[in-house]
Each structure stands twice: as structure tokens, then as C-alpha cells.
Amino acid sequence: MKKILFIQRVLAALIDILVIYLPSQFLVFILFGRENSYQNWLSIILFLVYNVLSTVYFSGQTIGKYFASLKVTPVTKSLMEMGQREAIKLLYFLPLVGFIFMILSLLIYIKEGRFLHDKFAKSEVIVYGRN
């Protein structure tokens, strides 16, 4: 079950990246011209804001989670609490140490079935409609 959930989470992330992150990066490029690190960070922050808002206002689901039949639980209506969950994901984008945080997160997932950002926020991603 953990392997299937992992595959569903990867699928959900890919959908969100294709539908939200890449278009936001393109939009930022169109608005600000040539690419630089500030534009990359702006795209990442826009993507994380999307994750916070959609998870809070759409019952724990982003577009990707919806199509992958997943949801974040417990769903909190607090933007602050969900923001903390998403802010942890910024660690994955840090130069040099981001890779270390990704490996750490994968190791936590293998052991506990939750990623670093899930553990930190005391949340869990479940198959929607099942407990």
C-alpha cells in the first residue's frame, strides 16, 4: 500500500507541476524578461501559495491530489498551519542542502509512510474516501 501511495503522490506532484508550476514559471518569465534566481524563487513561492490555498479551501486537495484520489488530513482551515507544512518544502529547493533534505524526507517516508513536511505539520496524505 505504501508503494502505491508513493506512486500516487508522485503522480499528483507531476500533475501540479505541469498544471501550475510550469505555467507560473512561464508567466513570471514573460512578465520579468530573462531568467534569474529571483524569478525561480518567485515561481516556487507562487507554487507553494497555490498548495496552501487549494489544500485549505478544497478539502485537502490540490488539482494533482484530486486526480490522484488523494487528500491531506487532518485538513485544517488555518492558512498558518497549512503554510507551515508548505514552507518546509522550501528546504527541498535550497542550493546544495536541498538534496540532503530530499534524501532525509525519502528516508522518513520509507520508515514512517510520511514525508518530512507531513511529519513536521502532523499531517498525512491518504487515499480519498478511505481511512
From TrEMBL:
Record organism: Streptococcus varani
UniProt-listed InterPro entries: RDD (IPR010432)
Taxonomic lineage from the root: Bacteria, Bacillati, Bacillota, Bacilli, Lactobacillales
Main localisation: membrane
All copies of domain RDD, residue ranges: 7-122
Compartments where found: Membrane
Regions crossing the membrane: 12-32, 38-58, 90-110
Source species, domain of life: Bacteria
Gene Ontology, cellular component aspect: membrane
Pfam families: RDD
The name this protein goes by in its record: RDD family protein
UniProt keyword list: Membrane, Transmembrane, Transmembrane helix
Keyword Membrane attached: yes
